[in-house]
Amino acid sequence: MPQPPLEILPPPIAHLRRGNVGVDYVHRFASARPGPEVLVQALTHGNEICGAHALLWLLEQVEQVEQVEQGFAPQRGALTLVLANVAAFERFDAQAPHRSRFVDEDMNRVWSDEALQAPIDSVERRRARELRPFVDEADFVLDIHSMHEDCQALMVCGTADKNAAYARALGVPGLLLIDTGHPAGLRMVERGGFSDPASPRRALLVECGQHWQRASVDVAIDTLVRFLALTGLADADWAQQHRRLPTPPRQRLVRVTEAVVAQSADFRFLLPVQGLAVVPQAGTPIARDGERTWLAPYDNTVLVMPSTQHARPGNTQVRLGRYED
Ligand SMILES: [Zn+2]
Question: Is position 115 within any domain?
Fold first, then answer.
């Protein structure tokens, strides 16, 4: 597949290394008024740079408050900003931009207590262990990602309906996803109370579009601004002023029922899978996987976030779901 053009590049972040909480690349801003603990994370995947651009933009807003008394400061509660997998991000190479996704392992598969406590050392687990206290403190989390394939922005609401309800309150993006979790390990937005229907904690993971598209930065900033307003940290006027995109007329929800996990390295799709392709008929062959053929499980099967990169056994190649409305 041809490499899409790099419309955006990794922004400079070295000046942000020294945070104000004793952990590199973690910055916390607290209001004098009580309120929720809010965490916004970028660079869970080192090559997903729109979130880093969005956090840099917000940090400029924070500086403006300090200098000219306009810009952003939390109205209540506290905001923690995290640039997560900086070690991977720093390996960016324009010739092979996907390689900076992680160093040793996918950082968004290590968030169970079991994985964090396992006697396994990796760049990503070390960083996740450092960040865990901030995640466990947070009442509300926004984790900012982007996608390998060209696809409209979508919100991964984890496995709990309460997070989809929260994304509806947010109002963006136009497409919401509830899935079955990732078979390879727990994601940050699923950790602890975020997956417990009875807990008031909420976590959202926004996929802002294709990694290298400039538009992904607008989606990231727009989502961030609205999220700060929804959590009560930002004032409504400031949020109104800094939105970048129109509110979609409605949000559709896709409920994922299963993940297609490659069983062989010889995996190929049997039909075009770009965007959010819908397979009209149950039983239609979707992919060939060694000896196995994957079939559409029901009418109007939606193919969510297909991976057209070379398959490895155990890789999620695509998720299958259906529109609920
Ligand atoms: Zn990601």
Answer: yes
The full DSSP string for 77-143 is: SEEEEEE--HHHHTT--TTSGGGGG-SSS-GGG--SHHHHHSS---HHHHHHHHHHHHHHH-SEEEE
Q: Which domain holds residue 215?
A: 14-242
* CA 208 – ligand 1 centroid, Å: 10
- Same domain (yes/no): 47, 83: yes
How far is the centre of ligand 1, averaged over its atoms, from the C-alpha of 151 (Å)? 13
Residue 204 belongs to a domain? yes
pLDDT at 150: 85
Task: Give the pLDDT confidence score for residue 311 in this predicted structure.
Answer: 82
Task: Mark whether 184 and 156 lie in a shared domain.
Answer: yes
CATH number (domain holding residue 47): 3.40.630.10
For the chain, the domain total comes to 2
Could you tell me which of 235, 209, 239 has the C-alpha nearest to residue 222? 239
Give residue 274 CA to ligand 1 midpoint distance, Å: 18
* Residues of the chain falling short of pLDDT 50: none
Q: Separation of 108 CA from ligand 1 center, angstroms?
A: 8
d(CA 257, ligand 1 centre) in Å:
20
Give pLDDT, residue 2: 64
Predicted model pTM: 0.95
6 CA to middle of ligand 1, Å? Answer: 17
Q: At what angle do helices 161-170 and 215-230 cross, to 10 degrees?
A: 100
Is 174 found in the same domain as 117?
yes
What distance in angstroms lies between residue 106's CA and the mean position of ligand 1's atoms?
9
